[in-house]
Amino acid sequence: MELWQKLIRESVHTVDHLVEQFNMDRKTAEDLDEFFQARINPYYLSLIRYPGDPIWLQCIPDKVELEDFTAIDDPLMEDAMSPVPNITHRYPDRALFLVTSQCGIYCRFCTRKRKVGDYEKISMKGLESAFDYLEEHAEIRDVILSGGDPLMLTDTMLEKILKRLRTIKHIEIIRLGTRMPVVLPQRITQKLCNVIKKYHPIYVNTHFNHPWEVTPESTEACEMLANAGVPVGNQMVIMKDINDDPAVVKELMQKLLKIRVRPYYMYMADETKGANHFRTSIETGMKIVEALRGHTSGLAIPHFVIDAPGGGGKIPLLPNYVLHMDEEKIILRNYKNEVYSYKNYADKNNPDGFGSKKKKKAQAAKKSVPKKKTEVLVLDEVES
Ligand code: SF4
Questions:
Q1: Which residue, judged by its Cα, is nearest atom 8 of ligand 1?
Q2: Which atom of ligand 1 is nearest to the CA of 111?
Q3: Listing from the earlier edge strand, what are the strands of the sheet with 202-206?
Q4: What pLDDT does 374 receive?
Q5: Which residues are bridge partners to 40 per DSSP?
Q6: With a 6 A CB cut-off, is 187 part of the ligand 1 pocket?
Q7: Mutate to test the pocket of ligand 1, among 43, 116, 184 (most ligand atoms within 8 A of CB)
Q8: Which of 165, 184, 204, 368 has the greatest number of CB atoms lying within 10 Å of its CB?
């Protein structure tokens, strides 16, 4: 058994564990277990510094989850966009391929609770029809392995899936959506990297939410992936009391760049059953973006998005930097609130823009109209 598998085995995950380790009332622990079970592996548990800290909030079940059952189970309508089991096909050229229901920890904010935890939530029986679907749909050039967490599969199982995907000619890119580099970095072994290397181009998107998650272990994991030629991106979710603070997010983004992880997306939290206590205002998100743009390298700035409820996909949000725009110019403010004007040139999309034939003609006509100078001349003539 590999170290990461041993750590999974040693996780806090039963009602008894919750009662003993967190002094939880048994009935509450049972209700929480029924709603969404716990899994806190010893590595992630060791990152907690005090009860209620940003690591604790992400992984320790809380009775507040039981008070919030208004949101729907599948806020992003992934199931409605699932043509066959294990596949969600929302965007034209990409497909989400769910390959396991297991994760290194069970995050309390998870939007995919309906698919995560019990083994039967994502069936391995669905893999064959998923491969068939991917083979039949030549428009799919990008497949994202997710779940659950695809790195909960053994190297052998993962390789089987990667190998099979690589037999499908139209699939150009494979992505792994995994929290393992963050929550169980021991999973990133040289053996795993050697498997991944054989099936490039493979991208990894991981999910750091707080600077305390950047540890010597997670640094090593991300660097091993980068050294195996895997571009690693990060998706962060803004959550109350975890990272709803511009200074915390800036520190995280800067730390990520140092460990060769590129900030990719920063999400507003989804409307998720049992997790609405994590949600923040959009103003908080805007404030965070404003605190990044101009104040740190553009490489450290992720796209700020809302994953639209009802399956609308990711919609980008930006603070308002445009004060005015017309066909000839745009008036902008920068991160220091200084105002600048930039000429809006003519082209096929803006035929009447600055420097257009029409504008040049109008300017020339203006120049040829006798102006004040002529009048002066006339006056001179009269005087003489
Ligand atoms: S790792 Fe991802 S899928 Fe698994 S519980 Fe956390 S957020 Fe959900």
A1: 110
A2: 8
A3: 87-88, 94-98, 142-146, 173-177, 202-206, 232-238, 261-268, 303-308, 313-316
A4: 44
A5: 12
A6: no
A7: 116
A8: 184
Exposed (0-12), middle (13-18) or buried (19+): which is 375, by Cβ within 10 Å?
exposed
Peptide bond into 148 cis (omega under 30): yes
The Cα–Cα gap between 37 and 108 comes to 9
Superfamily of domain 3-316: Aldolase class I (3.20.20.70)
- Angle between the 190-197 and 216-227 helix axes, to the nearest 10 degrees? 30
Q: How much is the pLDDT for 369? A: 67
For residue 182, the model assigns a pLDDT of: 98
Q: Is the CB of 179 under 6 A from ligand 1?
A: yes
Catalytic residues: 90-91, 94, 103, 107, 110, 112, 270, 307, 314
Calpha distance 280→237 (Å, rounded)? 10
- pTM of the predicted structure, to 2 decimals: 0.91
Q: Is the peptide bond before 185 cis (omega within 30 degrees of 0)?
A: no
275 lines ligand 1 (CB under 6 A): no
Q: What is the mean pLDDT of each run of 10 residues along the chain (384 residues)?
A: 97 96 95 96 98 98 89 78 91 94 96 84 82 97 95 96 97 98 98 98 98 98 98 98 98 98 96 93 96 94 93 91 97 96 96 88 77 46 38
* Residue nearest to ligand 1 atom 6, measured at CA: 107
DSSP 323-354: EEE-SSEEEEE-TT--EEEEE-B-BTTBTTSB
Domain span(s) for CATH 3.20.20.70 in the chain: 3-316
